[in-house]
Structure formats: C-alpha cells, structure tokens
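Office hours follow-up: a student asked to see two folded examples consecutively, so here they are.
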Amino acid sequence: MASPLKTLGLAAAAYALLCAGAQAAFWRCELPGGVFMVSLPSVSLVSIHEYVVDGAARVTELTVGTNSAVVARFYYLEPMVPQSPAGGIGQTLVDKAQQQARDAAARTGMEAVWQKVVKNYPVTTHAHTVEYRLETLDQLKRVQKSLEDAWRANRETQFKVSDDDASDSNTSGN
C-alpha cells in the first residue's frame, strides 16, 4: 500500500502536469448520426444495460457519465416482433407484412421511426443528454470496448463506426 505522502506526491505531480499545459487524452467516436468526443479524465462511468420500452422495443444502452451535466447514450433498438398466437401460417403472415413494410420504407428512402433517435421537445432536448443510435448490437459492443480500453489506459483514441461492421476503425495515440 502506498504511503499517504507518496500518494499526495503523485496527485501533486499530476496536478502540476495539468497546470503546465499537459493535455488530457480524448476519446473520439464517429458514428452515422454524428461525432462524440470526451476528455477521458472526465469520464466517471461507463454502463451497458438492456430494457424493454412499452412492450414495443428492446433497447441495449451504453451510458457514458462525465463530471459535467451531460450524459451520452449510445443504443441499439430491436423492435419486439409480434407473434401470432396460432403460430404457423399466422406467424408467416405477420412476418410477411413486416418485411413488406421494411421494403416499402427502403424504396421510398425513409427509415422506420424505430431506427432513429427520437426526442420529445423540450423534455428530452433540454435533459443534457446526447444520444446516438447504432444499427447493430455488435457495433454497440465495439463502441463500448473501444471506450473502456481507452478509459482504462487514459490513451488518446479515435473510433469510427461504419455501416459495414468489418470496416470499423480504432486508432490509438501514445
């Protein structure tokens, strides 16, 4: 266990570096919906959890808390798929109707509402939250890993999420 004087000395050295103009490491994440950048020493928590919203969608959410009033949320939405009570032919009809709705949205260039971040003005727009929706659960988990790795090492990192999972990029500095 470090002595109190040694601990105090390390804290004083860190403070002196900050005062001397040493820059903090940042984590920068480019997403289809925007860019999120945070000073790693200001990150106070990273949490991932799952919940269901009004029985309509399953949400997996990555929350990033900082020492400011702003909270960042990255999430993946998965619509709850209606199930036919009869199964079989009934379920086939439900599945076909859902596919036709997706196809129609794709043809018109419009995404389904559940694929976008939706805010209720002024409640959610003034709630000090920054939100990003990811297209796959795997993308969300890669964002989490990049952030946690950078935070633990206090290492400058740039992470880019692309539409193609295989082309994500994660660049770390010294």
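And the second, which I mentioned at the end of office hours:
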Amino acid sequence: MNQTSYRSRLSPYQLKPQHPIDVMRAKVYDVQDKENPIRAEIEKCIGTHTIKAVVEEDRQTLDAMGVDGLISFLCTMTKDGRVLSQGRGSAMIGPQNRFFQRTVACAFNSALADAAIRATKVLDQLRDKSGAEETYEDSAPEPATDKQREYLKQLIQANVRDESALATWMNRIGEISKSEASDAIKSFKN
C-alpha cells in the first residue's frame, strides 16, 4: 500500500511564526525604543557642540614647498579653548585650472575637511563629560545565596557565644550581600 504524507506548507501570504531568539534580537536592535539602554548613550551625544574653526594661510607649507601658484590653508578646530585638530589643504593655480575661485575654494575645503576628519579621532572631546566617570557596577549589591546564608548560620552558631552578638548576626543574615557573606565566612573560618 502506497501512503502519501503531506507536509503542511505556509502560504506565501501567511506570516511565518518568529522564533523567540529572533523576537529578542529585534528588541535589542530597536534603538528607537525609549526603553532600550542604548538610548542613554545616544542622548549623551545629542546637543549643540560649539566648535570653532580658525583658517589661516599655511606659511609653513608655502615656505617648505617654495612653488609659485601654490595656495595652502591651515584650519585649526578648537572647543572650549582646547585644540581638537589641525587640517591642511593645498591647491595649485596653473594653466590646467584657470578658475582661481574654484582653486582657492578647493584648498579651503580640503583644510576644513582634513581638520574635521582628524577631530573625529578625539570624539571624547566633543561629548559631554558629565557621565564619563560613571562606573558600570550595579548600585544594589547582589544578595547572598541560600547556601552562603545556611553555612554562615552554622558558623555563627558554632563561633559566637555572646547572646546579643548572636541575635545581631541572625537578624542581619537575611539582608546580607554576597560579598559581605563571603567575607564573614572567611573571618569565621580563620
């Protein structure tokens, strides 16, 4: 007897059920969600950054090259009086490029672009420093494990003879942190 088995197939118009991992991955990459922790880092970068660009003729390059028709600019970018970067841009006036306005603009734009590109290497200078010293440790300590608490109770009962000290330890054992329990166990064992 010939038996045919049929697999269920989804129509191309039906939505495929999503795997739970794909759902979680979509949540992680949804950086527009207000609850996403990446939003805090994005918010630190948003704002007005006052960067000053001072453009001057690059005498050092002009003197070093000593070529007629050379136009050279030096652009210095600063923020709050601190130098972020310097960029240089040069162009030549000659028979091939007789449009001097374009040649000067090219040298100017090159200096400005070079300074901007070099400034990106010091991005931390551009961002607000208010949260720079933050630590990534949890503010609430991790509670002690049940095993730690039980072992600590045994050590306390075996080592503490004073009734008031014993009562203090027993009252504190429910709210002790993992690191405190570890330190207490070490102290009772020694």
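Two things to take away from it. Residues 67 and 92 are 9 Å apart (CA to CA). Confidence is low (pLDDT under 50) at residues 131-136.
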